[in-house]
Design goal:
alpha+beta, 5-stranded mixed beta sheet, single chain, 9-stranded antiparallel beta sheet
């Protein structure tokens, strides 16, 4: 058990509600409000200033999670935002110091436990069932999906974990962009290379509907574990096993009510349905804004002109369900994708060069995807080259990385000022910046397209860059930081609650 700030031992987290109960024991980690809020733009606008952080338009800050209990037009509904929008809070939820989350996630891969199946009597996600063939069913009025900005294509489910399977390739769970298009229709955006999209494509080629469940309101170990990517989780690997490794207990699955698929038994809300073969819709068909929604790079991406469609067959929920969402480019996205990115790179580097890279940080400036800082423990002149080799390994492990900064062990990789200091004093642009042109990257970066650089062959292709901000080993004595007397500060500033050493 984890020890709480004031209340002693804490019970384990088994679902979203027990996660929220834990946060209530830590002052400043959760706000609950019954002040009226409109899900169309206003809710995201409030949280932008209170806790979104990340690459959100300024002013913003990293702050508490929030539960809105009075959502305009949806009496009795609750919306949670920002559960994982700070690394400290993720540490509280995953029983780990914040800066040790990389290693915590890396260990979960080695201790992975596959999910188990339970009956409907053990599936609180099905306490209430809304069938789409009922005359009064309308997804638009049933669930308060937020619209983040006035330019959004429509209301979005931003933290819907899509579960799909292929009879030959296995099961996959991934978070995707889901826009509500009608009473029983949702469009779904797949970034290139997603495994579940390969499952969908195979079903479509066979002329089959593709059954899926969209699971929302989960134990945070589940969505964080689900964001690992290949090669850490190869095609057919069920990422729910990583959540099992994090918790030391398997994720429970139940049969869906209306489709031949599984649902996460302790989810707050499950949307059941089929992705229809051969059907495509414009993402902004109802609003014609030309925009989708704010994505992790910090921009409103263009609305996609032709996306697959989920035909909803049912929505099942717990009693008094909590809809969970995020503000697209905020710190929560960094937690979801960045910490698994760190773990994947850390494991690969430990296997390739044990102990050489003791810490990895996927920086929030890149949304947890584009920018990584590697701490390198150089002990000889040969290690000057090994540091750059470490960057190449990282690029190979995580294809969406764009920039890597290499630093020495005296640099705090979680302190941007310290990293930038190393770049100013231990790097010369003409010899310490290495570029690799024309490599696959990520389609949501607006600079990765031929309009930006005509030399790029296609959207989602980029130049990758290594910034070597490590001091040359032969000169390491000249790059020793100024050392200060190590003094216990606690008697001088007791109000700051400092720790020492």
């Amino acid at each position: 058990m984890t020890t709480g700030a004031f209340d002693g031992p804490l019970p384990p987290i088994t679902d979203l509600r027990s996660a929220l109960d834990r946060l209530r024991r830590f002052p400043g980690q959760l706000i609950e409000t019954d002040h009226p809020v409109d899900p169309a733009g206003q809710l995201a606008g409030v949280y932008k200033r209170i806790g979104a952080g990340g690459t959100v338009e300024r002013p913003t800050r990293t702050g508490p999670a929030m539960i809105f209990g009075n959502v305009t037009g949806y009496p009795g509904s609750r919306v949670l935002v920002g559960l994982m929008a700070s690394r400290e809070r993720v540490g509280l939820l995953l029983d780990s110091p914040a800066r040790a989350l990389t290693q915590r996630m890396a260990e979960a891969i080695d201790t992975a436990q596959g999910p188990v199946f339970v009956g409907p009597d053990q599936a609180p996600c099905q306490e209430i069932v809304h069938r789409a063939d009922d005359p009064g069913f309308d997804l638009r009025t049933l669930l308060p999906a937020p619209t983040n900005t006035p330019e959004d294509a429509g209301p979005y489910f931003c933290l819907g974990l899509v579960l799909g399977s292929d009879p030959e390739l296995g099961t996959d769970v991934t978070i995707h962009r889901l826009c509500v298009q009608g009473r029983d229709e949702i469009s779904i955006f797949f970034a290139p290379g997603r495994h579940i999209d390969e499952f969908r494509r195979r079903a479509e080629e066979a002329g089959r509907q593709f059954p899926i469940s969209v699971n929302m309101g989960l134990d945070p170990a589940i969505p964080i574990g689900a964001t690992f990517e290949a090669p850490t989780t190869p095609l057919g690997y069920d990422e729910l096993a990583i959540a099992g490794g994090l918790r030391g207990a398997p994720v429970e699955l139940a049969d869906c009510v209306t489709v031949p698929q599984k649902a996460i038994a302790r989810a707050e809300i499950v949307i059941e349905g089929y992705i229809l073969p051969g059907v495509r819709v414009a993402e902004d068909q109802n609003t014609h804004t030309g925009h989708a929604m704010p994505e992790f790079p910090g921009y409103d991406g263009p609305a996609n002109p032709a996306l697959p469609v989920i035909k909803v067959t049912a929505v099942t929920t717990r009693r008094d369900p909590i809809l969970q969402t995020l503000v697209g480019p905020g710190e929560e996205h960094t937690s979801l994708t960045g910490i698994p990115t760190e773990a994947s790179i850390f494991n690969a580097l430990h296997a390739a060069m044990p102990g050489f890279v003791p810490e990895v940080h996927a920086h929030t400036a890149g949304g947890g995807k584009f920018l990584a800082i590697l701490k390198c423990d150089k002990k000889s002149a040969f290690d000057d080259g090994r540091a750059r080799q470490a960057a190449l390994v990282a690029f190979g492990v995580y294809s969406e990385l764009k920039n890597i900064v290499l630093v020495d062990t005296d640099v705090d990789i979680f302190d941007s000022d310290d990293v930038l200091w190393a770049m100013q004093t231990r790097m010369q642009g003409d010899i310490d910046i290495i570029t690799i042109p024309g490599v696959a990257g990520h389609v949501l970066d607006p600079s990765q397209q031929p309009d930006y650089n005509p030399a790029l062959p296609a959207k989602g292709t980029t130049a990758k860059t290594i910034f070597d901000a490590t001091a040359p080993y032969r000169l390491h004595e000249a790059f020793q930081r100024a050392h200060f007397l190590d003094v216990d500060p606690r008697p001088y500033a007791p109000g700051l609650n400092l720790t020492y050493p």
